[in-house]
Amino acid sequence: MIQISMPLRQALSKLTLPIFMVASFGLMLLGKADALLAERARMAVADALSPLYAALAEPLSVVHRGIEGAQHLATLHEENARLREENDRLRRWQAVALALDAENATLKAQLRWIPDPAPSFLTARVVADAGGVYARAVLLSLGPNHSVARGQIALDDRGLVGRVTELGTRSARVLLLTDMNSRVPVTLEGSRGRAILAGTNGPRPRLMYWAEGTQPAEGERVVTSAEANAFPPGLPVGVVRYSTSNVPEVVPFAQLDRLEVVRLFDYGLKGVIPPEASVARQSERRR
Amino acid sequence: MDDRTPGIRPRQTVGRRLDAMARWVFPLAMTVALVLITSAPFRLPGQAELQNAAALACVWFWSVFRPLSMPPPAVFLVGLLADLLDFAPPGVGVVTLLVAHAVALRWRRSLTRQGFLMIWLAFVTMAIALAAVQWLLTSMLTLRLVPLGPALFQAMLAAGLYPLLAVLLARAHRTIAEPANA
Question: What is A183-253's CATH topology?
């Protein structure tokens, strides 16, 4: 160890705090100036922790299921009656859907319609909540040689979840459509009007910028729109509900607070790529 | 370490030194472990806020009672880890924790004489002030007005969490984390 005189040592120990304070402000500036570096650091931490999370996810989901099962036991009777009623209703709708599907197929055959290519997808487990105080996102655990790319679209069994925004070697982060930074071009299914679905960090994202004359109606279904080439058309998003302050919001179909497994679809869309990726592209171009 | 207290001491063997080192590192290790545990997928409502609140409470406790084991580099490390796990703008958590550390260092002599209630009240006041700082910095760095609600919720959570943690930490402070016991 280096021998330092007592006063010097005291002076140095007094300086540590100011030095680290300055360093933290420097860190803030660095994070702002080089978003890619901050993203790499975050994904490195997420990559390191994702096997741990994945190992934890299994027993924890058993616990969650146990709790849910116990809660369901209490409402078993009413739930059963409701499901019977819903099942009858869905059977009628299934008949309608099959008839419409057949009709659609014959019409498409007559029109020589070019079918959309079937998208490839892979399924990944949600291992952790990758959101924070001001973000809504989930972390997926992927194999070491995955083919996931930024901008791929995540769906659960019911509807749109969000998009892949950050990629690590063994994990990916999906920004949920409820996040403050999420903007999804959508179509109002009843009026075919276009709008933008903007996340608020709350459970219900908000509809914005609909055209005059296509006011979103209460209970209207909302699907994705192909505008801006970021999403394929027609993915189910949610249902319009007006808030108490009369703002049109969307209740997502996807169960965003209890995601366990999501499917990542590769539609090959390169319309809008998240900002981090465009930074990476620029730096590639510079080389 | 004990240059100032005269007396007969046991010989400094390797094992004893390792023991003292482990006890010295305990506060930092426990804080990091707590931050990592609160980032695990428990799906608790408000878990992100809980993580920051736990980090703040730990840094405050150790900065007041054992600042030698929670020096500025350790605080910086904890804040950086919390920021990276939280996907927050890097540096915001670091600054708030360092401010908490600085406040604790400045007032620790008078606070430790006042007893638990005063320490807790000071902590609550500081947590609310830091919520405002966090909100301001996040708004500045993301270039948008983020809601103040989550930051205040985090401060309240920290206020509620502190007495619980303080009971455990005070016990650890006297037993596991005491280098003199080595």
Answer: Thrombin, subunit H (2.40.10)
Nearest residue to A262 via CA among A167, A151, A165, A138: A138
pLDDT given for residue B33 in this prediction: 92
Whole-model pTM? 0.81
> How deeply is B77 buried, as exposed, middle or buried, from its count of CB atoms within 10 A (0-12, 13-18, 19+)?
middle
- Write down how long chain B is: 182
Verify whether the Cβ–Cβ distance B95 to A24 is below 8 Å.
Answer: yes
Closest chain A C-alpha to B26 CA, distance in angstroms: 21
Name the packing angle between helices B47-65 and B92-114 (round to 10°). 50
Which residues in chain A are classed under CATH 2.40.10.350?
Answer: 183-253
Locate A40 and state its tokens.
């790499």
Contact B43 A42 (CB under 8 A): no
Asked if B94 has any chain A CB less than 8 Å from its own CB, the reply is: yes
Q: What is the reported pLDDT for B96?
A: 92
Q: With an 8 Å Cβ cutoff, are A24 and B40 in contact?
A: no
CB A235 within 8 A of CB A254: no
